[in-house]
Amino acid sequence: MAFSKIDLRNFRCFDSLSIDLSSKSNLFYGKNGCGKTSILESIYIASSGRSFRTSNLESLIRQGSEAFNIRAYDDNTGSILEVNKAQTKPINIKINNSKVTISELARAFPSFSIDSKTFFYNDNAPEYRRKQLDRGLFIASTDYAKDWFGYFRSLKQRNSALKLGDMAQAKAYDPLLVEHGERLNILRENLITEVKKIYDEMVHGLAQENRRADIFSNIDIYLKPGFDNNTGLMENLVKTSSIDLKRKITTAGPHKADISFESKGLLIKDIFSRGEQKLLSILWSISQNIYLGRAFNLSPILLLDDLSSELDAEMLECFLPTLKYIENRFVFSNIVDPFGSKISINEQSLKKFHVEQLK
Predict the structure, then answer these.
(1) Which of 338, 347, 346, 344 has the alpha carbon at shortest distance from 28?
(2) Which residues, in sequence order, are bridge partners of residue 20?
(3) The pairing of beta strand 67-74 with beta strand 25-29
């Protein structure tokens, strides 16, 4: 499911706001402080129960009000979502008037945010890239969720045994670790392979329109599984057992996985400018969003705040035709309208909102 309309009450700077979204691309623009990011934040909260800006949801309640309310509608299914957060009370989420958990909400109305960390995806720690990879699969695939929980439960127990110096007890968890871990690895590899196909097709199209986009061609993107995939996880656990016992932690496995982005054998973070890194991250996120929609019959919303930050004029020009490839709802913000007459609004299904005029 995906939102086609969202209503806000007493949310941040808005006392009341109603927005009808395009099924494809939606641009919110206006000067700093007008509420662009708050609109994107409300959509993220309505699909995840969390904010991408703060862990304190009470701070989102409009000053002088007792609670905020977000209502969202899906015209395709007729579903109605309502999110309420009152002072000193937990967040309350209902779909069609039935209370749901945050996990159920995330699967019913999936969304993904391209935030300041995502902009420089390659500069972040491997843990961040794993989380980005896992979140998509976790929402899309119940099988992945089962194996993820199974793997990390076994890993926790194995590490506890290692801390006690009990290698025999630690090895007792190896079969479960291998069973769940190798399935996780297969699903991760498959996602990266399929997303890379979509990415390559998109970049090929962009390069036809703007030769500057060639820089994003022929990039090697692959999973580093966290263990030697040729010999298998079990053999890796055996080989590293003495090291694990010494360090009192499991040193090999999918919990050490990473995604590598390279060009001619060099890491992207070492050769791309900040603007180039940001656009690469946007293109990869859009490709993953398209894959999740196609492979798992989802309609995941993709959110991008402050498009032109860090993008020079060349990189912004490379981005503009990207809207042709959007298959799911894309909601993004910018200080100004960067498009003007550069693309056909009807052709690209782009809907623009001047936020200062919405109030």
Answers:
(1) 338
(2) 5
(3) unpaired
The C-alpha angle 234, 236, 238, rounded to 5 degrees, equals 75
Q: Position of tokens 């996780």?
A: 184
Q: Where does 49-85 have alpha helices with state H?
A: none
Q: Would you say 35 and 355 are in contact if contact means Cβ atoms under 8 Å apart?
A: yes
Buried b (16+ CB within 10 A) or exposed e, 85-123: beeeeebebebeeeebeeeebbbbbbbbbbeebbbbbbe
Nearest CA-CA partner of 252 in 188, 177, 187: 177
Note the pLDDT tens digit of each residue in 321-338. 999 899 999 999 999 998
Lookup result for tokens 């996120």: 285
What residues pair up with 80 in beta bridges, in sequence order? 73
Q: Domain spanning 5-110+299-358: which superfamily?
A: P-loop containing nucleotide triphosphate hydrolases (3.40.50.300)
The string over 172-202, giving b where at least 16 C-beta atoms fall within 10 Å of a residue's C-beta and e elsewhere, is: ebbebbbebbbbbbebbeebbebbbebbbeb
Do 144 and 184 meet the contact criterion of CB atoms below 8 Å apart?
A: yes
Backbone dihedral angles phi then psi of residue 220, each to the nearest 5 degrees: -85, 120
For the whole model, what pTM was predicted?
Answer: 0.92
3-state secondary structure (DSSP) of residue 53: coil
Domain boundaries of the chain, sorted by first residue: 5-110+299-358, 122-269
**CATH class of residue range 122-269:** mainly alpha
Distance, in Å, from the CA atom of 83 to the CA atom of 46, rounded to the nearest integer, reads 6
Read off the pLDDT of residues 166-219 as tens digits, 9 standing for 90 and up: 999 999 999 999 999 999 999 999 999 999 999 999 999 999 999 999 999 999
Task: State how far the Cα of 41 lies from the Cα of 168, in Å rounded to an integer.
Answer: 49
Contact 315, 275 (CB under 8 A): yes
